[in-house]
Amino acid sequence: MTTSESAAHPRFAEALAELGLGGLNARIRRFPDATRTAAEAAAAIGCELSQICKSLIFAADGVPVLVLMDGASRVDVERVRQELGVERVTRAKADVVRETTGYAIGGVPPFGHRTRTRVLADRSLLAHDVVWAAAGDPHAVFPMEPKELIAHAGATLVDVRELTA
Fold this sequence. Notes:
With about 160 residues, the protein is an alpha/beta fold. Helix content is about 25%, strand content about 25%.
């Protein structure tokens, strides 16, 4: 693992600077192995799976929407559909994710995207003092207090995780 100015994806480093969060660059961790999945990220960091903040792009009636979810949970698309008041919600295809965010699946950060999209953050993220999110590529992550992360993402706090029986 390394920590350095070059750890973040260049677009994400630029977004951090624009948001006045340049100091966060020093806290980004880069790993030799990919942290593309929440489980890979949690293992590399040494944290609980639920401390990973997944940034997932869905298509709500064809319009991209970002859902921030804790790493131990799954998004309930029906709850997202109800929250947004749309007809249909599906997982966005890889090309839509890249076009919308500027990043590849597995490295999508919670903010600093190419385009402005609606953002929903599941309330489960608030269960932790710190969560870890992708820093623009599948090898880099950063820590942030959940309320601060949600605020920077411009997210609406919702309950959209799949309930387990």
